[in-house]
Write a structure and sequence with these properties.
Elements: E1 2-3, E2 17-18, H1 19-41, H2 57-62, E3 69-71, H3 77-84, H4 88-94, H5 130-142, E4 149-154, H6 161-172, E5 177-183, E6 186-187, E7 190-191, H7 200-207, E8 210-215, H8 219-234, E9 240-245, H9 264-273, H10 276-286, H11 292-314, E10 343-345, H12 348-362, E11 368-370, H13 385-390, E12 395-397, H14 402-416, E13 420-424, H15 434-446, E14 455-461, H16 486-490, E15 496-498, H17 503-513, E16 520-525, H18 543-546, E17 550-552, E18 564-569, E19 573-579, H19 582-598, E20 601-606, E21 609-611, H20 615-625, E22 628-631, H21 640-652, E23 661-663, H22 675-681, H23 685-697
Parallel strand pairs: 3-4, 4-5, 5-9, 8-9, 11-12, 11-13, 13-14, 14-16, 15-16, 19-20, 19-22, 22-23
Antiparallel strand pairs: 1-2, 6-7, 10-17, 15-21, 18-20
The chain binds thiamine diphosphate (TPP).
Thiamine diphosphate binds next to strand 6.
């Protein structure tokens, strides 16, 4: 039955609403909730988290269009049903069936997700999806779409950094976002009063987001208010926040005992006054839209339908262990291409500028987002200067918040299906974004391939602020500006990590990274931004590597996951040196010095991609030389370099004639500022040369 609902605001009309259909959706959510609660108690599956008291969210979604995006939280079963009409999905996920539309049975139930229905993949980290939702809204606005993004969360979850980030994204960029805080007064055992000082609405308004309080037990008011706010957002008036007051009718989850923290009286009062399904049913009867008997009839029909659906779902296939490695990471399949453009000698910074220009040239929606990147200087290192001067609007300066930056680029990538680039000024400061990065890398796995997060995170890492390379001068970056960073990214499943050593590789690999469907960390070593090719001790350029300072014009790509094997000298290899980034140059200098004194050859394996690294190239180099040194500029603690060393011990042991050597920085927090201490911190060509000599003498 369709009822004309007058919106509360002047001159705004909510669309006519089929109140019976809405009631049925809310009732379906409640009955499904009750069914699943019982099944969990019967031990049919391990976990359930309920929606009872939050069915109002069906009214919120009813006021949105199909093209609007949803970022739901775990109590939003009614929102799922309103958008998809799919009663099988939640059952399939609870029973962990391969047919599950959200995660194919791979994640806990109630992680709502569907690319087809524009429902972003729900995550367990409360509000963890919010910075991505901001990114989707950013892309939608940039492309002048009509769509808005509705992002919901609990009131406890609104205290997270992630939620504050989304609020700031929405406010600063005037994003088409409707943020909904579903306040049921409890965050497990903690009451709302602990979450903010003062009012959430005032807090949001102070941040620059229009906000209102709404009684979620009044379904018509919730629908009307949503419709009015949506109209306001669609007209370009910026984001809005709705503080929706609800009641929680069940314990937090199947793992919580409600009586342990809530009084009998409070539970009884909540049940009597804050049951949206009962309240809406009463409204339907009082307003002549249905009779009590109709409501009872709906209940019976829906219950029978759910029972039938459950029986069907139980016949469906459960996952098997052999799929556990599916959808972890998508390394793009490299299409061989021969660079045709004229070669010019160029710095790595020049090559990166060119690569970003190529991406903007080919894809009008490509952008780089980060601190200062839109200034004429092109960020503090000048990597986006070409974008700023030649491709206006493709380098966009951000607020000073790394999680916000990654969220915008990642969400925009999800919206577009293509990688957008976040620039983190110094890798040390990616720390506030770690949760968002980890989630970005996990989304294809948890959604069983339904979603992917194409994303490039470019960041200056390691020693050096951009000055010329020398054997020890590393630029005085000290703590906060000189961490290497590979450990932070290579340990994240689903992430690709690249660290180029030469301008030619930097351009080709950055262009290939933009083809990836998995997030890529692109580590740019500060010392290499403007470096010359390395020289040997006599001051001669080392030809084997110097050629990679010549960079072709135009577009070309290089394969991810493939090392570059550099043979210094002639004849069979007597030493394999595994390195990446700056240490490739130091290793080449050391190798050239040894070879010019003693003849023979040494192979420097430049990994280029750290995850996934080129196992074949390492194994082949070790097999030939029977001696190996792993060199890293990371501190001598748990490190990516240690991982490579351990892999060699495990996989190449019988090809080794002596102990595999390991050279790293010392076990201190980061390079000190003072020159002498800084030089003592980092390994350099002298250390490598000494180690080569020692191993050759063994
Ligand atoms: C970042 C994070 N911290 C802690 C948790 C554990 N946890 C799960 S739900 C929850 C409470 C959330 O409360 P609220 O947002 O008010 O939602 P409600 O469950 O009351 O609907 C907590 C602490 C989590 N999932 N994520």
């Amino acid at each position: 039955m369709t009822v004309d609902i007058k919106a509360t605001g002047a001159n705004t009309l909510a669309q006519p609403l089929d109140v019976i259909a809405l009631y049925k959706t809310m009732l379906t959510a409640r009955l499904m909730n009750d069914l699943l609660k019982v099944r969990k108690t019967q031990g049919r599956f391990p976990f359930y988290i309920g929606c009872a008291g939050h069915e109002t969210m069906a009214a919120v979604v009813a006021a949105l269009d199909e093209e609007d995006w949803l970022a739901l939280y775990y109590r939003d079963l009614a929102a799922w049903l309103q958008r998809t009409g799919d009663i099988y999905g939640p059952l399939r996920e609870a029973y962990s069936r391969v047919t599950g539309p959200m995660c194919a049975g791979r994640n806990m139930p109630a992680h709502y997700s569907s690319k087809q229905h524009r429902i972003l993949p729900g995550v367990s980290e409360v509000s963890g999806l919010a910075p991505f939702a901001g990114g989707v809204a950013f892309a939608a606005k940039r492309q002048n779409e009509n769509a808005i993004v509705m992002c919901s969360t609990g009131e406890g979850s609104s205290a997270t950094n992630d939620f504050s980030v989304a609020l700031r994204q929405a406010a600063v960029h005037r994003l088409p976002m409707l943020l909904i805080v579903e306040d049921n007064n409890w965050a497990i055992t903690t009451p709302s009063s602990v979450q903010w000082a003062g009012s959430l609405v005032e807090w949001a308004k102070g941040a620059g987001v229009y906000a209102e309080e709404v009684d979620g037990n009044d379904i018509i008011q919730t629908y009307e208010t949503t419709a009015r706010l949506v109209q306001q957002i669609r007209s370009g008036n910026g984001p809005a926040l709705m503080h929706l007051h609800l009641g929680l009718l069940d314990p937090h989850s199947s793992s919580t005992d409600i009586k342990a923290y809530r009084s009998k009286e409070e539970i009884a009062l909540t049940t009597a006054t804050k049951d949206p399904v009962k309240n809406f049913g009463r409204w339907l009867v009082e307003n002549g839209h249905a009779r009590e008997e109709d409501l009872e009839c709906f209940r019976k029909e829906i219950r029978a339908e759910l029972d039938r659906a459950e029986q069907e779902v139980l016949k469906e296939q459960e996952p098997t262990g052999d799929r556990v490695l599916e959808h972890v990471v998508y390394v793009p399949e490299w299409r061989e291409n021969i660079p045709r453009g004229a070669k010019r000698r160029m710095t790595m910074l020049g090559a990166i500028n060119e690569a970003l220009g190529e991406l903007a040239e080919r894809d009008p929606q490509f952008f780089v987002y980060g601190q200062d990147v839109g200034s004429p200087r092109g960020g503090v290192f000048g990597a986006t200067a070409t974008l700023v001067s030649k491709y206006p609007g493709h380098a966009i300066s951000s607020p000073l918040n790394e999680q916000l930056i990654v969220g915008i680029a990642a969400g925009a990538g999800m919206h577009d299906g293509k990688a957008r680039c976040a620039e983190i000024q110094f890798v040390d400061y990616h720390q506030s974004a770690t949760q968002t990065i980890r989630l970005a890398a996990r989304m294809s796995y948890q959604s069983f391939g339904d979603w992917s997060v194409p994303l490039i995170i470019r960041t200056k890492s390691g020693s050096g602020g951009g000055g010329p390379i020398s054997s020890s001068g590393s630029g005085g970056g000290a703590y906060g500006h000189s961490n290497a960073g590979e450990l932070w990214f290579t340990h994240v499943p689903g992430m690709i990590t690249i660290c180029p050593a030469t301008p030619f590789d930097a351009k080709g690999l950055l262009l290939e990274a933009a083809r990836s469907k998995s997030p890529v960390a692109f580590l740019e070593r500060g010392r290499l931004y403007r470096s010359e090719p390395p020289k040997d001790g006599a001051g001669n350029s080392i030809a084997e590597i110097a050629e990679y300072w010549s960079v072709p014009e135009g577009y070309y790509t290089l394969p991810i996951g493939k090392a570059r094997r550099l043979r210094i000298g002639q004849g069979p290899s007597q030493m394999a040196i595994i390195a990446w980034g700056t240490m490739v140059l130091e290793a080449c200098t050391a190798a050239a010095n040894v070879v010019s004194r003693e003849g023979g050859s040494i192979e420097v394996v430049d990994l280029r991609t750290l995850a996934p690294f080129d196992e074949e190239a390492i194994a082949a180099a070790v097999k030939e030389a029977n001696r190996v040194i792993v060199v890293t500029e990371e501190a001598d603690l748990t490190s990516f370099g240690r991982h490579i060393h351990s892999w060699i011990v495990q996989n190449c042991f019988y090809d080794l004639d002596c102990t595999p050597a390991f050279i790293s920085a010392v076990a201190a927090p980061a390079a000190p500022y003072s020159a002498a201490e800084e030089a003592a911190f980092y390994p350099d060509a002298t250390d490598i040369e000494a180690k080569i000599e020692a191993l050759l003498a063994e």
